[in-house]
């Protein structure tokens, strides 16, 4: 149990940080002492129940007052184990919660139902972030709507993301690779789809990515496809099937009935308005107030891209 702490196992995600190893070692210790205690207590119970069972009608239990040594031992040994768990737990918790001061800071925003990331140089990304391997990284996180929770199993760390204030967490990934992020606080319909990837890459690759315009030389429709996969996929399908919102296939150019009885044709203006002010004109059969606004979150290029992408889905 303790020796498995430095490797990944069949039961646990990989340990991609030193903190993850420390968390697992502590849990391994707790598991082992709990198992030993369980065997001693339950095993002793069964053993004594059998050994001292009543053999005949006249069996009498002898009078036993106490045994000071035994009582001291079964109090003092657990006391030492509890204190060890407390001190050890405090040390690991402190390490988990205290970000080094030289950390690379990244702003994180949670919104139903995706994660977006903003770096100091202005580079932004959605549903994926890049960090250099071996680098202390501190995430400063906020929510635009309800409580979410940023959870990275491979780093053994998790933090609530709350509207109206910033919370933070930090990590230092020691191995290159892609690590899954989950939202770990139920936040509505597509909670389970609120995921992201952390790409831990070499420093050169990271610098490359950081300085790179993600839409460089891309046709608008491909910009739109990227916007879709990073921002819209939780609620909109690429078929004509309705999910949380309408499916996108064939929607462009369609005539729709609105709440209140008037008609609308889905054109560039309607798509744009629905991205920026989703509740302005809600199509009949869809609930009001579900889609959040993307005003200030998508650039004009991204909005145009999304429109072109929807147009292309005939
Ligand atoms: Cu966001 Cu669950």
Q: Give the topology string: H per helix, E per strand.
A: HHEEEEEEEEEEHHEEHH
Query: What is the 3D shape?
Result: elongated
**Bound compounds:** dinuclear copper ion
Mean pLDDT: 91
What is the fold-level CATH name, i.e. the topology of the largest domain?
Answer: Immunoglobulin-like
Q: How many domain modules?
A: 2
Question: What percentage of amino acids are in beta strands?
Answer: 15-25%
* Count of alpha/pi helices: 6
- Give the second-level CATH assignment, the architecture of the largest domain: Sandwich
Structural class: alpha+beta
Unreliable segments of 5+ consecutive residues:
1-6
Main sheet strand line-up: 3-2-1-5-8
Number of strands: 12
Radius of gyration: 28 Å
Describe this structure in words.
This protein is an alpha+beta fold. The chain has 2 domains: 1-54 and 65-212, Cupredoxins -  blue copper proteins (Immunoglobulin-like, Sandwich); 220-312, Cytochrome Bc1 Complex, Chain D, domain 2 (Orthogonal Bundle), CATH 1.10.760. The chain has 6 helices and 12 strands. It has helices at 18-51, 68-97, 203-210, 220-232, 268-276, 300-312; strands spanning 104-111, 114-118, 124-126, 128-132, 136-143, 148-152, 157-161, 167-172, 177-183, 195-201, 255-257, 263-265. A hairpin with a 2-residue loop joins strand 1 (104-111) and strand 2 (114-118). Helix 1 (18-51) runs antiparallel to helix 2 (68-97) and helix 4 crosses helix 6. The chain is elongated. The site of dinuclear copper ion has 9 residues, from loops. Dinuclear copper ion is lined by residues 110, 113, 148, 183, 185-187, 191, 194.
């Amino acid at each position: 149990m303790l020796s498995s702490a430095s490797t990944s196992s069949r039961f646990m995600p990989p340990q991609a940080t030193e903190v993850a190893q420390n968390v697992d070692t502590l849990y391994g210790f707790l598991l082992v002492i709990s198992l030993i205690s369980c065997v001693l207590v339950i095993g002793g119970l069964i053993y004594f129940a059998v050994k001292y069972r009543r053999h005949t009608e006249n069996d009498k239990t002898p009078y036993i007052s106490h045994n000071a040594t035994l009582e001291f031992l079964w109090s003092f040994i657990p006391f030492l184990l509890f204190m060890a768990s407390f001190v050890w737990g405090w040390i690991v918790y402190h390490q988990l919660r205290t970000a080094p001061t030289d950390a690379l800071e990244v702003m994180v925003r949670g919104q139903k139902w995706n994660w977006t990331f903003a770096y100091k140089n202005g580079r932004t990304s959605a549903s994926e972030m890049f960090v250099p391997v071996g680098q202390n990284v501190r995430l400063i996180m906020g929510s635009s709507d309800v409580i979410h929770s940023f959870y990275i199993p491979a780093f053994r760390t998790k933090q609530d993301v709350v509207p109206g204030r910033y919370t933070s967490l930090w990590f230092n990934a020691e191995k290159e690779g892609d690590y899954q992020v989950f939202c770990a606080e139920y936040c509505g319909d597509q909670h389970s789809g609120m995921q992201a990837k952390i790409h831990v890459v070499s420093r050169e690759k990271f610098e490359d990515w950081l300085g790179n315009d993600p839409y460089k030389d891309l046709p608008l429709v491909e910009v739109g496809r990227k916007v879709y996969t990073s921002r819209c996929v939780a609620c909109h399908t690429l078929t004509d099937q309705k999910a949380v919102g309408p499916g996108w296939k064939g929607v462009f150019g369609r005539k729709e009935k609105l709440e209140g009885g008037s008609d609308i044709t889905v054109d560039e203006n309607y798509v744009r308005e629905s991205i920026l002010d989703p509740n302005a004109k809600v199509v009949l059969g869809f609930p009001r107030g579900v889609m959040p606004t993307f005003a200030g979150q998508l650039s004009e290029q991204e909005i145009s891209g999304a429109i072109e992408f929807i147009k292309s889905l005939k």
